[in-house]
Design goal:
about 400 residues, alpha+beta, Nucleotidyltransferase, domain 5, Actin, Chain A, domain 4, 3 domains, 6-stranded mixed β-sheet, 5-stranded mixed β-sheet, 19 strands
Length: about 400
């Protein structure tokens, strides 16, 4: 690989995972972590001693030290502690979220130290930059970063600040579904025919109607929900488990920070498993103490049992799509297709509802969870030749 001196990373700083890519020698290359994975957990752990742990190493610490292991930071970037997305995260996370004395961006507390959300997010960007430099063998100082379509001016400014703290000049900020559309190399983007980009990530949902005009992509409309993503599916399922435990044992598992975090993480694993299998095991070892010894939380669950807890969340995504279509002045039958990107688009219930609601073929990226980073990398390499004003 021989990136040019002006190489610019394409970065998707996601709620659950972050991904970076670079186009070089006509090929797309991902930035990989120590495990060789392109999807790097968006997790930062503050240990008692030494520098913060990032990614998979940090994610492993959630089981033993959830109060000092920060995840979901994207929901706080550029937002006040009173924002809806911050309140939702605060209700489910073991770490502490605080409003700064003078107002402004939310802060998190780790090891009795306050950090602005942007400071924590900058550690993720710095990690991506350092991993990229190690892989490509040269300094990288520029990046295109993606944000949800609902991102405010404050969020975009905070993202630029994150880049500065990480040693990166953010040369452009692009909406995530637009980047996803740029990454799509298959059929469906026909000249003059609207395409609905259905971008369901870990923490946000975006719906965007785009139109291809020759080599350019034009955005016709956009709508979204920055409090809707895969984490909310995990949380809805975890709460159903908490309710069942309360009914059977009169134990409130949400008051035990470590156990509640373990239940949420196992809920995520079951969600992922049920995207490809009809049933999955929910298992949290030694969840409770009893006279006879530790007791597991253990159940075999069918997909249809769990889907009922997600119906309202999926309907919110369909409503956002309807608003985007209305803004674009387009009917569902005028769409060429619906492009599904983002890791939450793997869920069968999501795909069924998209097919039922729009009666149009849906297109699925081979790796929907990396589509946004791929599109950002293409935009970084080819620039204005891809997007219409």
């Amino acid at each position: 690989m021989s990136p040019s001196p002006e190489s610019v990373l394409g970065i998707d700083l996601g709620t659950t995972f972050c991904t970076a890519a670079l186009l070089s020698d006509g090929r797309l290359h991902y930035v990989l972590d120590g495990r060789g994975d392109a999807c790097i957990p968006s997790v930062v752990h503050f240990p008692r001693r030494g520098p913060p742990l990032i990614g998979a190493d940090a994610d492993r610490m959630r089981a033993s030290d959830p109060a000092n292991t920060i995840w979901g930071i994207k929901r706080l970037i550029g937002k006040a502690a009173e924002a809806a997305s911050a309140r939702i995260l605060d209700a489910s996370a073991a770490f502490t979220i605080r409003a700064p004395p003078g107002g402004g961006e939310a802060e998190i507390v780790a090891r009795d130290v306050r950090y602005r959300a942007s400071e924590v997010a900058s550690l993720l960007l710095r990690y991506l930059r350092e991993q990229a430099q190690a892989r490509f063998g040269r300094r990288i100082g520029k990046a295109i970063v993606t944000v949800p379509v609902t991102a405010t001016a404050e969020v975009k400014k905070a993202m630029i600040d994150c880049g500065k703290m990480a040693g990166l000049e953010i040369t452009r900020i692009v909406a995530e579904p637009v980047a996803g559309a740029l990454a799509h190399a298959g059929p469906g983007l026909k000249d003059g025919v609207p395409l609905l980009v259905f971008d369901f990530g870990g923490g946000t949902f975006d719906a965007t109607v785009v139109l291809r005009q020759g080599t350019l992509i034009r955005v016709l409309s956009a709508d979204g929900d920055d409090c809707l993503g895969g984490h909310d599916f995990d949380l809805a399922f975890a709460r159903s488990i908490a309710d069942a435990v309360w009914r059977s044992r009169k134990v409130d598992v949400t008051h035990d920070l470590v156990l509640w975090d373990r239940i949420q993480r196992q809920s995520e694993q079951v969600k992922r498993a049920l995207s490809f299998a009809e049933s999955a095991r929910f298992h949290v070892p030694e969840a409770f103490s009893a006279e006879s010894g530790p007791t597991d939380l253990d159940a075999q669950l069918r997909r249809e049992q769990v889907e009922g807890h997600w119906t309202e969340l999926v309907e919110r995504s369909i409503e956002a799509c309807s608003r985007a279509l209305q803004q674009a002045g387009a009917r569902p039958d005028q769409l060429g297709a619906v492009l599904l990107i983002g890791g939450t688009s793997y869920i069968p219930l999501v795909r069924r509802r998209v097919a039922q609601s729009f009666q149009r073929p849906y297109l699925v990226e081979e790796e929907p969870q990396t589509a946004v980073a791929r599109g950002a990398a293409l935009l970084a390499a080819r620039g204005a030749s891809l997007l219409a004003a």
